[in-house]
Every structure is written in C-alpha cells, then in structure tokens.
Specification:
The protein is mainly α. It has one domain. The chain contains five helices and no strands. α4 runs antiparallel to α5. The longest helix has 27 residues.
C-alpha cells in the first residue's frame, strides 16, 4: 500500500465513521454509549469529516503526501490517546478501544511509508 492508498483509506474511514452520529445519533449511541454533550459529538464529527475529505483530496505528489501524512498521523495519535486514556478509565465505552486499534494501525501504515 502506498502513501496515497493510506491517505484514501484514512479519509474514507473518517468520513464514513464521522457521518454516522450526524445522520443517526440514536444508533451511534446504541453502539458507543450514551452521550451527555451531543454538541461535542457533532463538533468532533464535523472536524473528522473535514479531515477525511482533505485526506481523500490530497494530491499524490510528494508535497501533498507530506501534508496528508502529518495530518493523518496527528489526527490518529490524538484520537488513539483519547480512546486509550478515557476507555481505560471507564469514562467512555470500551468499544473505543477498537477505534484506538484502528488509529494505531493507521499510524503504523504511515510510518511504514517513510
């Protein structure tokens, strides 16, 4: 898998998963647990859709892939850290540990592309 493939994979994952709570919050909460601050879920979802769209649109040249890589690793690291810390503390559902695994896999994919 080349850098452009990683960018497209991550972008697709973020757009699809982030649209879910925007389209149907009830089913999202049924899987991920109840949310106290739905505005915050929607805010994070909107940001992830934006990041995902940029990952999908990234030009395949070296400069475009460098931006996609930084954006991809930074976003995945942030999400993985939040998932691990707060799922570990029991503050959020353990299902977020699955997301942490996906985020760490994305980071690994980017790091293999050096």
């Amino acid at each position: 898998m080349n850098s452009q493939d990683v960018s497209r994979l991550q972008g697709s994952f973020y757009v699809i998963s982030a649209l879910w709570p925007l389209i149907h919050m009830r089913s999202f909460e049924a899987v991920s647990g109840p949310k106290k601050d739905k505005w915050l879920v929607r805010t994070v979802s909107g940001l992830l859709v934006t990041i995902g769209m940029e990952q999908l649109r990234s030009p395949g040249n070296a400069a475009g892939m460098a931006v996609a890589r930084r954006l991809g690793i930074g976003t995945a690291a942030t999400l993985a850290a939040i998932d691990l810390v707060y799922a570990g503390k029991g503050r959020i559902s353990k299902i977020y540990l699955l997301d942490a695994a996906v985020e760490l896999s994305l980071i690994r994919s980017w790091l293999k592309k050096r």
